[in-house]
Design a protein that fits this description.
The protein is an alpha+beta fold. The protein has helices spanning 3-8, 18-42, 62-74, 127-142, 173-188; strands at residues 9-14, 81-90, 97-105, 109-121, 144-145, 153-166, 197-212, 220-231. It has five helices and eight strands. The protein has an eight-stranded mixed β-sheet with strand order 1-7-8-6-4-3-2-5, sandwiched between helices. A hairpin with a 3-residue loop joins β3 and β4. The termini are far apart.
Length: 232
């Protein structure tokens, strides 16, 4: 495998959380399916870039997660069974209710997952965006009040879906990889040397060909960086 191929797919982890091991097949499947859409577009099976999930906003990636969840847990006979849009009690809201994006349920444990989608430009600042969205996910997870009669261990996880973009379709793979590595370095220790998370894992897939995205400004998608983390 040459360096070009090595740089197309980046994965890694900080820490040894068992729950992170559980969600890693999901992250891998999401990028695998997303890249398959890109391949179908290159081959003209998908007629236009606007049909691609990675060309749209947050809601457009939801079907990809649904397919990936089924493949990673239901069809693979995993010990964990996925439940989405779970109605929960949530403190700090006017109604006292809310929805949990995803729960992975086993005989002894529930992994509660909140997810957020953000766009990142390759040459733009991303530190404050990442800090803010991690704080937002952490606060959402802390606000959950599970039913008292649930006799299972609860572990909280966040998932960031970071769409890596650029105003140009002439960015090199090295530039994309450099951006991703900067984000990973920041996740390990922010600009003040503080750890943003307990631990995390990441999966990044660079598309074979960048494509336009649905936005007011001309922009191109280069890939998705998916980060699962345990909040502080």
């Amino acid at each position: 495998m040459d360096m070009l191929e090595l740089n197309r797919k980046l994965t890694g982890r900080k820490g040894n959380s068992k729950s992170l091991e559980v969600v890693e097949p999901l992250l891998d499947k999401v990028n695998e399916i997303s890249n398959l859409y890109n391949e179908k577009w290159i081959k003209k099976i998908i007629p236009h870039w606007s049909f691609l999930p990675s060309a749209g906003k947050e809601i457009s990636i939801a079907p990809i997660f649904n397919q990936a969840v089924e493949s990673a847990y239901i069809l693979s006979n995993s010990d964990y069974f996925p439940c989405s849009e779970v109605t929960i009690k949530r403190s700090g809201t006017s109604s006292g209710k809310g929805h949990l994006d995803l729960a992975l349920v086993s005989r002894k444990k529930i992994i509660a997952i909140e997810m957020k989608y953000r766009r990142m430009t390759i040459k733009g600042q991303s530190d404050s965006i990442i800090s803010n969205v991690i704080e937002e996910i952490t606060n959402q997870l802390k606000s959950i009040e599970f039913l008292a009669d649930i006799d299972k261990k609860i572990e909280n996880l966040g998932i960031l879906i970071l769409s890596i973009r650029s105003p140009s379709d002439c960015i090199s793979i090295d530039e994309v990889s450099l951006k991703v590595n900067k984000i990973i370095s920041f996740l390990k220790n922010d600009s003040e040397g503080k750890e943003l998370t307990e631990d995390f894992s990441y999966h990044f897939q660079i598309w074979d060909t960048p494509h336009r995205v649905n936005s007011k400004s001309k922009s191109f998608s280069y890939g998705n960086l998916l980060v699962a983390f345990r909040p502080q």
